[in-house]
């Protein structure tokens, strides 16, 4: 009986690995139709009895503005172009900060956030973290950095039911994503740590200060030239 159970477990593991690899490989070229976070938000709305309309429109890489790409990199993951999915220095600093009793600080990279948004659920658990690490390794292995950032910008949440750069630009500023100003792009990036609590179009003093800091960081990173050197 034990051997039978182990064989089944091994078989199910192989199937899970094969399916996940094929799925990630397919999404290297095919735009994902949605994300698991979108599914989660829809289910939550049904359970709460408050239906929401999910807004999302895919924009390919060459239609996403460089100022938004760089604002998100500057605000979320300044080592995005160099690491292999995990920023070990940021993890070490976050661990030290949390051990010292400071406010809880995370160290998720854009690659990790893409894996979580696209394939997994929200919340904190070791099980989810394990799956997140697996999918992060897969997308870093099978996708170029450009594709990771492209999928992230088209999948990330920017308000209740608002997903992706195009929907965010239209919802918050009434324009298409390609027409975002530097300030608008930085405001969108500034709200990503709390996209359902902070507003890019009606920013608090803190969000405005964070947006100013992001614009400074974009300049220090070299602006859009940074994007040319991503592996």
From TrEMBL:
Pathway(s) annotated for this protein in UniProt: Cell wall biogenesis; peptidoglycan biosynthesis
Domain of life, per lineage: Bacteria
Protein's membrane topology: Single-pass membrane protein
Membrane-spanning segments: 9-30
EC number: 2.4.99.28
UniProt keyword list: Cell inner membrane, Cell membrane, Cell shape, Cell wall biogenesis/degradation, Glycosyltransferase, Membrane, Peptidoglycan synthesis, Transferase, Transmembrane, Transmembrane helix
Domain Glycosyl transferase family: 54-218
Reaction it catalyzes: [GlcNAc-(1->4)-Mur2Ac(oyl-L-Ala-gamma-D-Glu-L-Lys-D-Ala-D-Ala)](n)-di-trans,octa-cis-undecaprenyl diphosphate + beta-D-GlcNAc-(1->4)-Mur2Ac(oyl-L-Ala-gamma-D-Glu-L-Lys-D-Ala-D-Ala)-di-trans,octa-cis-undecaprenyl diphosphate = [GlcNAc-(1->4)-Mur2Ac(oyl-L-Ala-gamma-D-Glu-L-Lys-D-Ala-D-Ala)](n+1)-di-trans,octa-cis-undecaprenyl diphosphate + di-trans,octa-cis-undecaprenyl diphosphate + H(+)
InterPro entries, per database record: Glyco_trans_51, Lysozyme-like_dom_sf, PBP_transglycosylase, Pep_trsgly
One Pfam family linked to the record: Transgly
Cellular localisation: Cell inner membrane
NCBIfam families on file: mono_pep_trsgly
Protein family according to the UniProt entry: Belongs to the glycosyltransferase 51 family.
Function comment: Peptidoglycan polymerase that catalyzes glycan chain elongation from lipid-linked precursors.
Protein name: Biosynthetic peptidoglycan transglycosylase
């Amino acid at each position: 009986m034990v051997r039978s159970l182990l064989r089944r477990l091994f078989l199910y593991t192989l199937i899970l690995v094969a399916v996940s690899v094929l799925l990630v490989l397919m999404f290297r070229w095919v735009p994902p139709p949605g994300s698991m976070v979108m599914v989660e938000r829809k289910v939550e709305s049904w359970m709460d009895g408050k239906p929401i309309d999910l807004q999302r429109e895919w924009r390919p890489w060459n239609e996403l503005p460089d100022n938004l790409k760089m604002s998100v990199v500057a605000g979320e993951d300044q080592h995005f172009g160099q690491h292999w999915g995990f920023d070990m220095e940021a993890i070490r600093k976050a661990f030290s900060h949390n051990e010292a009793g400071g406010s809880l600080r995370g160290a998720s990279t854009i690659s990790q956030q893409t894996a979580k948004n696209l394939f997994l659920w929200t919340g904190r658990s070791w099980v989810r973290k394990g799956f997140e690490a697996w999918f992060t390794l897969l997308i870093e292995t099978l996708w170029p950095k450009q594709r990771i950032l492209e999928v992230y910008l088209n999948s990330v949440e920017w308000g209740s039911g608002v997903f992706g750069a195009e929907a965010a630009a239209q919802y918050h500023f009434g324009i298409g994503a390609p027409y975002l100003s530097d300030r608008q792009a930085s405001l969108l990036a500034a709200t990503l740590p709390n996209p359902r609590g902070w507003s890019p179009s009606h920013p608090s003093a803190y969000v405005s200060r964070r947006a100013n800091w992001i614009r400074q960081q974009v300049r220090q990173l070299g602006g859009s030239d940074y994007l040319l050197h991503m592996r």
